[in-house]
Request: fold
Amino acid sequence: MFHESLLVSDALYRLSGNAWSLLRFLVIEHLRHGGKENGRLRAPYDQLVQFGITRRLIRPTIQEVVDRGLLTVERQGFAADGTRLPSLYRLTFLPAYGQPPTNEWRTFQLPRQLQTAKHVSLQNLTNQVPDGKLGCRKNPAKLLQSQVHQGELGSGYPMGNCYLDLDLTMACAMAGGGHAG
Reply:
């Protein structure tokens, strides 16, 4: 589901914790529908709040994921005749409507200062993998504890006083976690 090119992409680097939660929610929703409903995925606010995203941050979180090309809003939700129709979403890195992934995330580019930080992070990660290939650590939770940054290179999307540098560790956990070293 998650290819290495996506996991090391600019689109996933320094994604906010809320954005990771949204992606995780939508991937689970996709899987619950047998992998056949991408493009018609729903993410009701009440469920996102239960999933851990603060209600006032849901809209900017969705925008963050859309801005990075990981998600498209196929239909904006609205109310009509007393009925509320939910927004429908498509994960761009997965097939939809019988077509291959559109991969809009490939066009997202980090600001120059973050590209340098990403390069160093990737270099450190690959230096810890015996064969030099991208891998996932056995204990991502321990690594996450050491990767809290105080916003100086944050994603620019609100999530309190800090930004979690979830990088590849969280992506590996979402993908089922291969083991390295």
Observations:
- The longest strand covers residues 71-75.
- Residues 131-181 have pLDDT under 50 and may be disordered.
- The CA atoms of residues 63 and 71 lie 9 Å apart.
